[in-house]
Amino acid sequence: MTQRPERRSAGEPDSAVELLFRARRVLTGAAEETDPGDQLVRAHLGALRAASAMVALRSSPLGRARSRSIARGAPRDVWSQLAECAPELHGWAEFFARQAGRRAQVEAGIGQTPDVDESYRLLLQAEVFVDAVAVLMGVPLSAEREYPTAHAG
Asked: pLDDT of 101-149, one tens digit each?
């Protein structure tokens, strides 16, 4: 049986399940976008939230302290953290890490504007990725409808 995610108080970090639900809502918004650039950005951000959910779930406080001491001021992006804590998602981490540069270009308004096909393909990949993360987390794909969270977005 799926348990309802705990409500968080102000200042507490989001639970991993809530981050996953937020990822799904971002992808829903991306699917409704009519501008390919905005769709591409939102699709990537949805995948980023799902990756953050998995990292939050799989990273222990000890593991986070150790990785900070090794990095010593060099922050690691979520994609490298995901590949480390969830090796079964390594391919996805590499894919979305490569897409991060494209997202940054679109956000900055530089480079070629994405076309509908490019943004839609990224959205589809993000949806598959978020579903894969949900399965690995043990969260039923219908859980968000059953257990809405306190915070939208």
From this structure: 999 999 999 989 999 999 999 999 999 999 999 999 998 877 654 444 4
In CATH, the number for domain 16-140 is 1.20.120
For residue range 120-131, what is the model confidence (pLDDT) as tens digits? Answer: 999 999 999 999
Provide the terminal-to-terminal Cα distance of the chain, rounded to the nearest Å: 26
HSE, CB side, 13 Å, CA atoms: give it for residue 20.
28
Q: Are 93 and 83 in contact (CB under 8 A)?
A: yes
Residue 133 has, within 13 A of its CA and on its CB side, a CA count of 35
Each residue of 2-11: b (16+ CB within 10 Å) or e? eeebeeeeee
Domain positions in the chain are 16-140
CA distances, 52 to each of 57, 58, 73, 146 (Å): 8, 10, 20, 22
